[in-house]
Design goal:
α1 crosses α4 (131-141) and α2 packs across α3. The chain starts with 8 loop residues before the first helix and ends in a 6-residue tail after the last helix. By secondary structure, the protein is of the alpha+beta class. The radius of gyration is 17 Å and the shape is elongated. Helix content is 44%, strand content 19%. The strands form 2 sheets. The protein has a 3-stranded antiparallel beta sheet, with helices on one face. It has helices at 9-22, 74-84, 97-125, 131-141; strands spanning 38-42, 48-54, 57-62, 67-71, 90-94. The model has no long low-confidence stretch (mean pLDDT 92). The protein is built from 4 helices and 5 strands; from the N terminus they run αββββαβαα.
Length: 147
């Protein structure tokens, strides 16, 4: 935490967000892509969610309930959801399943490290707050998610 005085929960949230954004903040998938072959795919310009799993198939819908597609790979479903957080109408999907799995693993490790850092910053602040609530607020403000 910086030497400036944090006076409220809102100031604490803003300071942690500022600290994350000025460090090496990464956005999925662009900041996780490695040299590999990709196929470009159009997706709805909305946040996607995994609605249901049925016989090994994951149903992906938009946040307002519109059907997008069924996929038979859990990491591919996650890839769509994570990439949709940027609300772009196209994404590059790795053609190689091994590359896709590495990207998902790398993003999830990064996300987990962010959560640990956020919790640590909240602890250091000395505020008696609901850490889960503030952590969720910060993660939401950064437009991130974890499945």
């Amino acid at each position: 935490m910086t030497s400036q005085k944090i006076n409220s929960e809102e100031d604490l949230v803003k300071e942690i967000i500022r600290k994350i954004k000025t460090s090496e903040f990464k956005i999925f998938p662009d900041d996780f892509l490695i040299d590999a072959e990709f196929s470009e795919e159009k997706i709805p310009n909305k946040i996607l969610i995994i609605e249901t799993e049925f016989f090994g198939q994951s149903e992906i819908k938009t946040c307002d309930g519109e059907f997008f597609k069924m996929v038979d790979d859990k990491n591919l479903a996650k890839y769509y959801v994570y990439a949709s957080m940027q609300r772009s109408s196209t994404i590059n999907i790795p053609k190689d399943k091994t590359v896709l799995n590495k990207l998902i693993d790398s993003y999830e490790k990064y996300f987990d490290s962010l959560v640990k850092m956020i919790d640590s910053e909240i602890e250091k602040s000395g505020f008696k707050v609901n850490k889960m609530k503030l952590t969720n607020k910060i993660i939401h403000s950064l437009n991130l998610t974890r499945l």
